[in-house]
Amino acid sequence: MKLILLNGELLSREQASIDIEDRGYQFGDGVYEVVRIYNSHFFELDAHLERLERSAHEIKIKLPFTISELKQRIEKLKKSNNVHSGHLYLQITRGVSPRNHAFPEKAEPVLVAYTKEYSKEPSRIPGRAMFTDDIRWLRCDIKSLNLLGNVMAKDDATVKGYDEAIFHRGEIVTEGSSTNVFIIKNRILYTHPANHLILDGITRRKILSVAASLDIQVKEESFTKQQLLEADEVFISSTTQEVRPIIEVDGQPIGNGKEGDVTASLQAELERHISRSEK
Ligand code: PMP
Predict the structure, then answer these.
(1) Which atom of ligand 1 approaches the CA of 140 most closely?
(2) Domains in the chain, ordered, with CATH?
């Protein structure tokens, strides 16, 4: 039976319960992370936990444990569940308190984590995307549980038969509903700077360092919808999807309408980093 981590305890799903006045449940008042597990190892765990700590700090949640304690707990969870290839989902809410918008003085943060084993690897098949207005708030750098803007955009894309919704503010492309967006023009890699308008993806960071090691020039500069449509290659990145080529946006083919060489070499180099990290 797969176990769930609730604060310090490993419980069955039936045993675990969340209070109806948990602020995560009522306000989305919390933060989360998704960490990939390859060959029974977490990938980039420290980077994820640092980002979690930062997200919590930005919304004034004080973690009631150290990062090394948290690490021990999730390692134990992974081991108990014997996960080979999959991911860990982890969230921390502000805790339980009578419903009131202001932060409660006394509330103990609630940690929930569970693992998911993949029956097959997530699809990296070249995808099709649509543009959508970025109606989200201005702190997209915080990995908050409040994902309504993201899920509404993703649902709209799904219903219309697309694989991802790509957000834009005015003419500027920001990121995908659950991914970072990159374009390649004349062998230069562009992606939106890591500011308050996007989540600084762990995969994004990895791709930028991998690109440098492949001598691909990187520019953390914003680009327009038009520049994206005229790019040689476009791809999206995330913990679960790694590097996924986007070959069409709003029905317009990108480049020659196939996965590009730079995209393929970045994915291949990322895979090398992943297999090295498994040892
Ligand atoms: N942007 C958003 C809005 C996301 O939800 C995600 C996925 N967590 C990403 C970017 C990619 O981040 P990461 O590479 O850390 O998974």
Answers:
(1) 3
(2) 3-117 (3.30.470.10), 127-277 (3.20.10.10)
123: left (phi over 0), alpha (psi -120 to 50) or beta: beta
> Which H or E element spans position 30?
strand 30-38
The finding on whether 201 has its CB within 6 A of some atom of ligand 1 is: yes
- Strand order across the 30-38 sheet: 9-12, 3-6, 110-117, 86-93, 30-38, 41-42
Q: Is the dihedral of CA 157, 242, 227, 233 positive or negative?
A: negative
**Looking at ligand 1, which residue's alpha carbon is closest to its atom 9?**
179
Question: Ligand 1 center to residue 199 CA distance, Å?
Answer: 6
Q: How does pLDDT run along the chain (279 residues), one tens digit per residue?
A: 799 999 999 999 999 999 999 999 999 999 999 999 999 999 999 999 999 999 999 999 999 899 999 999 999 999 999 999 999 999 999 999 999 999 999 999 999 999 999 998 888 899 999 999 999 999 999 999 999 999 999 999 999 999 999 999 999 999 999 999 999 999 999 999 999 999 999 999 999 999 999 999 999 999 999 999 999 999 999 999 999 999 999 999 999 999 999 999 999 999 999 999 886
Count Cβ atoms within 10 A of the Cβ of residue 228 and give its class: 0-12 exposed, 13-18 middle, 19 or more buried.
Answer: buried
**Position in ligand 1 atom list of the atom nearest CA 204:** 14
For ligand 1, mutation pick of 36, 91, 169, 179 (most atoms within 8 Å of CB): 179
Q: Is the CB of 180 under 6 A from ligand 1?
A: yes
- Cα–Cα distances in angstroms (integers) from residue 204 to residues 77, 149, 180, 192, 277, in the given order: 27, 21, 7, 10, 17
The helix, strand and coil proportions of the chain, stated in percent and rounded to the nearest 5, come to: 30, 30, 40
